[in-house]
Amino acid sequence: MNPYAPAPPMPGPLKAVRVILIIRIVLAVIVYSLALLGLAAAAGMSSEQVEAVTGMGAGGIAAVLILGLALTAFEVYVVVALGKGGARALTLVRVVVVLGFASGLLNLVTDSSNPALGLVLMAVVLLLTQTESAKEWFRVTDPGHQPLQGGYPGHPNQPGPGGYPGNGGYPGQPGHPHQPGSGGHPNHPGPGGY
Fold this sequence. Notes:
Blueprint: H1 12-41, H2 47-54, H3 58-84, H4 87-110, H5 116-129, H6 132-140
Helix pairs in contact: 1-3, 1-5, 3-4, 4-5
């Protein structure tokens, strides 16, 4: 693909994927900001008090926050990469889906929150990236994509649909002797070859 050519517009299903990811990012930032405020408020408490209130120690809470913030930063990166398209962006979106499913299943096993919404959103993202318009957009926006060569049928050195490389036309049209033209039959030249 020509790096200077404008990218084709993003199809609707992928715009919906981008909106879903942005909403997840905004909600994560709000939740993690509140958790950081709670962690700061708990700084004056003893570790036993923190564990009694939250169910885990301050170190565990800090580890969960760091992991959550890293995953949120990765999702921001994926949203930016999604705007550029290509196979790499599709792979990154699939990684987000796998991480989202893993997070939802972990929440389901630990019974720490209701994972249903997260699992449904990841399933929707996965389905939207598998639509024909999304697949085609990822394909044509890939930096290694080589568009089909256009041309004019039957013109020398410019094969187009139905044209032959090199000289001449195609069956049913005027061409070289021994090539059928309009109204011609095999072994009978058509009207006027080149």
